[in-house]
């Protein structure tokens, strides 16, 4: 069902984004792999080993004109854009009272504005096609809030509002838009957390294990395959939020 489709994954050089890109490649999809600072050749080779095309594009999703140019180029080269996965994201944790304006702006610009930029430019292509699936990476923190993450929680809660509004605007043209809310997933983003913080989070997970990047990737493929689900937030969190 996904074979031959063109999929854009942002921030796909490592972590959850890389797992998502590989999962779609295994389904036979061509991958536009957006990366920010660096991507290992090995990642591109792994995708191409699935006998699909991999087009790496370096750039910052928070840059409106970069995103516009990237989407024009992808549309010209590949013809269609069938799935967009807005995965790129950062944290800059700090208690509210000590958070700088820059820490707040950076996280909002990458996570929330970056997701808007991508949807804003891809939606024109999908509207003309009258089909498409958009999947945004939220977080359980956007639902429950978290100490030290007012910037990140605001960005992820914003992504949930953006997801539902986009779903309503684009539904009549056969385009779905959903969010995934991961809990605690083992990646570079969570590896920086202190051991006692990691232990406290783990003890609050009913399924008693951290999430793996493939747990999230499977959810993204599931949402892309099901064109009767839209405007939803799918928690993939071992039961952290229920
Ligand atoms: P990660 O390993 O740190 O990967 C994040 C990726 O995003 C990196 O490849 C990074 O590239 C890229 N990126 C950052 N800023 C970017 C920008 N401006 N433009 C394009 N790409 C950019 O983190 P992860 O854990 O895989 O997280 C992936 C997504 O899942 C994020 O949206 C995150 O908020 C969300 N999430 C993660 C967890 C978790 O427990 N890990 C939980 C809930 C939600 P550079 O390194 O080159 O900057």
Topology:
Elements: E1 6-9, H1 15-26, E2 30-35, H2 41-48, E3 54-58, H3 64-78, E4 83-86, H4 101-129, E5 132-137, H5 141-144, H6 150-170, E6 175-182, H7 188-191, H8 195-203, H9 213-225, E7 233-236
Parallel strand pairs: 1-2, 1-4, 2-3, 4-5, 5-6, 6-7
Residues 10-11, 13-17, 34, 36-38, 60-62, 87-90, 110, 114, 137, 139, 182, 184-185, 187-190 line the site of NADP nicotinamide-adenine-dinucleotide phosphate.
Walkthrough of the structure:
With 242 residues, the protein is an alpha/beta fold. Helices cover 48% and strands 15% of the residues. The chain is built from 9 helices and 7 strands. It has a 7-stranded parallel sheet, with helices on both faces. Helix 1 (15-26) runs parallel beside helix 2 (41-48). The longest helix is centred in the middle third of the chain and has 29 residues, at 101-129. The protein is globular, with a radius of gyration of 17 Å. 45% of the residues are buried. The mean pLDDT is 98. The structure holds NADP nicotinamide-adenine-dinucleotide phosphate. NADP nicotinamide-adenine-dinucleotide phosphate (NAP) is lined by residues 10-11, 13-17, 34, 36-38, 60-62, 87-90, 110, 114, 137, 139, 182, 184-185, 187-190.
Question: How would a crystallographer describe the biggest sheet?
Answer: 7 strands, parallel
Strands ordered across the widest β-sheet: 3-2-1-4-5-6-7
The secondary structure category is: alpha/beta
Percent strand equals: 15-25%
Poorly predicted residue ranges? none
- What is the arithmetic mean of pLDDT? 98
Number of continuous helical runs: 9
Terminal Cα span:
31 Å
Gyration radius over CA: 17 Å
**Strand-and-helix sequence, N→C?**
EHEHEHEHEHHEHHHE
Number of strands: 7
Bound molecules: NADP nicotinamide-adenine-dinucleotide phosphate
Structural shape: globular
């Amino acid at each position: 069902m996904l074979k031959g489709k063109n999929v854009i994954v942002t921030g796909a050089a490592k972590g959850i984004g890389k797992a998502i890109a590989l999962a779609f490649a295994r389904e036979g999809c061509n991958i536009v792999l957006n990366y920010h600072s660096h991507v290992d050749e090995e990642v591109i080779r792994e995708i191409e080993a699935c006998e699909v095309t991999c087009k790496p594009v370096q750039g910052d999703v928070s840059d409106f004109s970069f995103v516009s140019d990237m989407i024009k180029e992808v549309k010209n080269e590949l013809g269609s854009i069938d799935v967009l996965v807005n995965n790129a994201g950062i944290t800059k944790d700090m208690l509210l009272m000590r958070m700088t304006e820059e820490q707040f702006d950076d996280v909002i610009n990458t996570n929330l504005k970056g997701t808007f930029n991508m949807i804003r430019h891809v939606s024109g292509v999908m509207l003309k096609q009258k089909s498409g699936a958009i999947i945004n990476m939220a977080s359980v923190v956007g639902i429950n809030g978290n100490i030290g993450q007012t910037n990140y929680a605001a960005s992820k809660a914003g992504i949930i509002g953006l997801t539902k509004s986009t779903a309503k605007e684009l539904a009549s043209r056969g385009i779905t838009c959903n969010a995934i809310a991961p809990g605690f997933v083992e990646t570079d983003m969570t590896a920086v957390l202190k051991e006692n913080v990691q232990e406290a989070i783990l003890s609050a997970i009913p399924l008693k294990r951290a999430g793996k990047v493939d747990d999230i990737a499977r959810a993204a493929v599931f949402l892309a395959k099901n064109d009767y689900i839209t405007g939803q937030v799918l928690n993939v969190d071992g039961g952290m939020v229920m």
